Amino acid sequence: MLDFSWLPDALTVLASGVATTMGLIVVVTVLGTVLSIAGAAARRSRSKGLRRAVGAYVELVRNTPFLVQLFFIFFGLPGLGIRLNAVTAAILAMTLNMTAYGIEVVRAGLEAVPKGQGEGGAALGLSRTRVFLSVVLPQALRVIFPALSSQIIIILLESAVVSQIAVRDLTYEADLLQSRTFRPFETYLVVTGLYLGLATAMRRGMEAGAHRWIFRGR
Amino acid sequence: MDEFSTSDIVINLLLAARWTLALTLVAFLGGGVVGLLILAARIDPRPWLARSANGYIGLFQGTPLLLQLFLVFFGLPLLGLQIEPWMAASFGLTFYASAYLAEIWRGGVEALPKGQWEAARALGLPRSACLRLVVLPQALRMTLPPAVGFLVQLVKATAVTSIIGYAELMRTANAINNATFEPFTVYGMVAAIYFALCFPLTAYARRLEAGGQHRFGR
């Protein structure tokens, strides 16, 4: 009953979809991680206005669906004269989303570092920035890494909806394939399996990386 | 073409939000029932049963919700079932919710001191009664904050069902946007409605969490 005879011809298309999806994830992971650290630092800043603004952004993003954020950015922002192509809109929406969750993750990690560590750094005459980057952050990473890597997997799974603004990701290629093969179930089954494989591989990869670089000597 | 005033847009979006709520409720209740079964299987002493439940949870937590919905939508007709978008949305989200709820509750069951099981067994209760009368009531109460947090995730997840054609808030917004060409207003309002649904739940979950930490002295 199930028919997979279309699969050999579809391999290059599927590979291209996987490449686009993974490309998005890599870019968003880098941008999102940097911005999460910056955002968490802003939440600890001495400026009340800055702390409030970051807090409002986090609440806004966490309490609305990703699909709505994506459509607002892609279809809504041109109303303000901000016109983005689909890939840029997808990267922006995914980064904003990941950062909103990432800020809380990084903040929890920073709070787990004993205060004396920062004070010790300051007593050595290091600047505030230096203390943050060289003393507090490296220790916080041990708490941050596991939660942040789950967040990256969640973004991978959420990214399937960027197909709806015609980003040629894995799901978009599946949509095109099934309209040609008339085998929607089989097509989506294969692609679901690919996502599961990507998620599993990424989780294993990040765990291995963490053991090598972050939890070294423990 | 019909003329839409801003108040027409608001009224139609609010009416559509009822379907978002209905779907959330169905998926949460259905997911709760299925989730309890998955939980029971997950903590069963028989390894094959526990492993199957673990696989079920991993499958739903490791693949995109959009693909899960596609598989239900295109898969059930292969079994000879006539299916409407609302049915596919309800089934898809029920399975999705069951996996997450089972995993949340498992956390509660495992956090419970072993003595609870042992004392219940010592009273001569069979395993199923221990679970039902002693372990579950405590585990469910302990995991109320993450369960409410998941409810927020579920409200947001319903937006994805717009893609398979279920006329909830997001799909109605797309239709209104196609008629009015005012994406900035329409998607802005949609975001506001989702926020109004989600934020109180988020705040409630946070209060429960703070209260719980206080009570358990963690």
UniProtKB/TrEMBL annotation, chain A:
Q: Which SUPFAM superfamilies match?
A: MetI-like (SSF161098)
Q: How does it sit in the membrane?
A: Multi-pass membrane protein
Q: Give the UniProt keywords, A-Z.
A: Cell membrane, Membrane, Transmembrane, Transmembrane helix, Transport
Transmembrane domains' residue ranges: 20-42, 143-167
One Gene Ontology BP term is: amino acid transport
- Domain of life from the UniProt record: Bacteria
Location of this chain's protein in the cell: Cell inner membrane; Cell membrane
Q: Boundaries of each ABC transmembrane type-1 domain copy?
A: 18-200
CC annotations in GO: ATP-binding cassette (ABC) transporter complex
The Swiss-Prot or TrEMBL record annotates one GO molecular function as: transmembrane transporter activity
The record's similarity note reads:
Belongs to the binding-protein-dependent transport system permease family. HisMQ subfamily.
Which NCBIfam families does the record match to this protein?
HEQRo_perm_3TM (TIGR01726)
Full protein name = Amino acid ABC transporter permease
Q: Which organism is it from?
A: Lichenifustis flavocetrariae
From TrEMBL, chain B:
UniProt key word Amino-acid biosynthesis: no
- Provide the ABC transmembrane type-1 domain boundaries: 17-205
The UniProt entry lists membrane topology as: Multi-pass membrane protein
Provide the alphabetized UniProt keywords.
Cell membrane, Membrane, Transmembrane, Transmembrane helix, Transport
Entry superkingdom = Bacteria
Tell me the organism. Lichenifustis flavocetrariae
Set out the biological process GO terms recorded for this chain's protein. amino acid transport
> Which CDD domains is this protein grouped with?
TM_PBP2
Name one matching Pfam family. Answer: BPD_transp_1
Q: What is this protein called?
A: Amino acid ABC transporter permease
Whether Glycosyltransferase counts among this entry's keywords is no
An example GO CC term for this entry is: ATP-binding cassette (ABC) transporter complex
Q: Where, by residue number, does the polypeptide cross the bilayer?
A: 20-41, 53-74, 147-166, 186-205
Q: Where in the cell is it found?
A: Cell inner membrane; Cell membrane
What NCBIfam families does this protein map onto?
A: HEQRo_perm_3TM (TIGR01726)
